[in-house]
Design goal:
Blueprint: H1 2-12, E1 17-21, E2 24-27, H2 28-45, E3 52-56, H3 60-72, E4 76-80, H4 85-95, E5 99-101, H5 117-122, E6 139-145, E7 153-158, H6 159-173, E8 179-182, H7 191-201, E9 204-207, H8 216-226, E10 230-233, H9 235-242, E11 257-260, H10 267-276, E12 281-286, E13 296-299, E14 314-315, E15 319-324, E16 337-343, E17 349-350, E18 359-362, E19 365-377, E20 380-386, E21 390-393, E22 396-399, H11 400-408, E23 413-422, E24 428-437, H12 445-453, E25 463-466, H13 480-487
Helix pairs in contact: 1-2, 2-3
The structure holds adenosine monophosphate.
Adenosine monophosphate binds next to β12, β19 and β20.
């Protein structure tokens, strides 16, 4: 299985580069030593095999701990530093971890930051990884996404799910040893692709600085420095890079493949990429965290640019896709309905089962109701929007009601409605929240934002407009359409 394959790579690649972060590169030898040190520490101390939270921002110790946990048969839970403390605590409460590895200082929780992960990694007399404890049915990782109740939802992905995903990705990309470029933070499941493709192929994993803080001056230097051969990114990120003319083949002469996932890819992005990188392979893929990174893929041809809706591709072999009507009957080709995913990619479920659980059994098999609309044409899937209030903003998945719930938790909010402003391409360009304060409350926008920053990551904090009263429609209900028109300047 892939952990055996990765172990071979860790042992074989020796002095070849495994990881490059902030201009520091680490060899496979070093990575193997870090992994074995953490693995042995965990086996010795975490005797109950409880999950381990890995907190940080794309440092090498995160990747090393992911692997150490996997070899030791423990679930890892990545959390990025962009997650405010209050939200991290909501996750800790659900996970009940053995420890938090990384720089998360909180008195309420046991953590091993005092052991100094860096020292542990430097330890010279490490032991080897003698046994792989992870079993196919074990929970390999838990990734948290935005939940409509205001509490993040943890998606439990098994080793079997990941195995199926990585084998498929290897086949789709035909990856060769090279340099794999990372954009996403490790708590976003897009990163699963670059984390494991780099390992499986013995490639260097080149980590771009976190894009939420990135500065255009250095990102192009980093890209040049990377000499990447394969990149995994969101369409939003590609659009951002394409705004600069220097993002072309001269900057990345060896770049042969880009894998897109996470949100809608538009013709214009593909067209520009083909102009700038003439012989590049562009792969579009689709899938939610609940189905282990992605379940469909397609290598886009120049003809696809002419289609008004870029396809997301063919479903992977061990997985099935059905398009359902609202009575859950299967729809014929070309008809739009909800995308149902069935088979090996479907994760185990959520850590805390929601009232209306989209994980279902379909014809005896594990299945996931995505809430995504789509249609099939010649066995190729096309996406056609969402059935609910879930949106993608700067590549991040956000439930608008998650934002609203966190406003209400401030206790001085009488009413709130979060609206996504969209460009004419239906891309979300801004989040806006209309807010009515409770009687007698005197808070300004800066103060409200400050309170919210303790609860939500930066990308979920909207612009705020304070209203005396919410507009009502003819039925006496909040006139949401009017708010939408205000936001979209109509
Ligand atoms: P996440 O769980 O963050 O990966 O987000 C999954 C959601 O992103 C899906 O349910 C879709 O709504 C959207 N999505 C992912 N990939 C694509 C794609 N290629 N085209 C359109 N929407 C996508």
């Amino acid at each position: 299985m892939i952990l055996d394959e990765i172990l071979d790579v860790l042992k074989r690649e020796n002095d070849d580069t495994a990881y490059i972060e902030k201009n520091i590169s680490y060899t496979y030898n070093e990575l193997y030593r870090f992994v074995s040190n953490i693995y042995n520490f965990l086996l010795l101390n975490n005797t109950e095999r409880k999950p381990v939270i890995v907190y940080g921002n794309k440092q090498i110790y995160m990747k090393a701990t992911f692997l150490a946990c996997s070899y030791a048969g423990m679930t890892y839970v990545p959390i990025d530093i962009s997650m405010p403390e209050e939200r991290v605590k909501l996750i800790i409460n659900q996970v009940d971890p053995y420890c938090i590895i990384g720089d998360f200082e909180s008195k309420d929780y046991k953590n091993i930051s005092s052991i100094k992960i860096e020292d542990m990694m430097k330890e010279k007399n490490y032991n080897n990884i003698k046994k792989i404890y992870m079993k196919p049915e074990d929970i390999y990782y838990i990734i948290f996404t935005s939940g409509s109740t205001g509490i993040p939802k943890g998606v439990k992905v098994t080793y079997k799910n990941l195995e199926s995903c990585v084998k498929w990705l290897k086949n789709v990309t035909k990856i060769q040893k090279g340099v794999v470029l990372n954009q996403a933070i490790f708590s976003f499941d897009l990163s699963v692709a670059d984390l494991y493709l780099s390992l499986i192929s013995g490639s260097a994993h080149y980590i771009l600085e976190d894009i939420t803080t990135f500065n255009f001056g250095t990102i192009f230097e980093e890209l040049k420095e990377s000499n990447a051969t394969l990149a995994v990114m969101t369409p939003s990120f590609a659009d951002l890079l394409l705004t600069d003319k220097s993002f072309n083949k001269e900057l990345l002469p060896k770049l042969n493949t880009i894998i897109f996932c996470g949100e809608k890819l538009f013709n214009i992005t593909v067209e520009k990429l083909y102009e700038r990188f003439d012989s590049i392979k562009i792969i579009n893929s689709y899938g939610p965290t609940e189905c282990t990174f992605a379940v469909t893929s397609i290598e886009l041809k120049k003809d696809n640019i002419n289609e008004s809706n870029i396809p997301v591709g063919r479903v992977k072999e061990d997985t099935n896709i059905f398009i359902l009507d609202n009575k859950r009957n299967i729809l014929e080709e070309n008809k739009i309905g909800e995308i149902l995913i069935v088979g090996n990619s479907v994760a185990e479920g959520y850590l805390e089962e929601p009232e209306k659980n989209p994980f279902i059994t379909y014809k005896g098999q594990k299945a996931y109701l995505t809430g995504d609309l789509g249609y099939m044409k010649d066995e190729i899937l096309y996406c056609a929007g969402r059935m609910d209030n879930q949106i993608k903003f700067k590549g991040y998945r956000i439930e608008l009601s998650d934002i609203e719930k966190n406003f209400y938790d401030l206790n001085y909010i009488d009413k709130v409605k979060a609206i996504a402003k969209s460009s004419n391409k239906n891309t979300v360009t801004k989040l806006v929240a209309f807010v009515k304060l409770k009687n007698g409350i005197n808070k300004n926008i800066t103060e409200i934002k400050k309170d919210l920053e303790k609860k939500l990551p930066g990308y979920m904090i909207p612009s705020i407009k304070i209203l005396e009263e919410f507009p009502l429609n003819n039925n006496g209900k909040t006139d949401i359409n009017r708010l939408r028109r205000i936001v979209n300047g109509e």
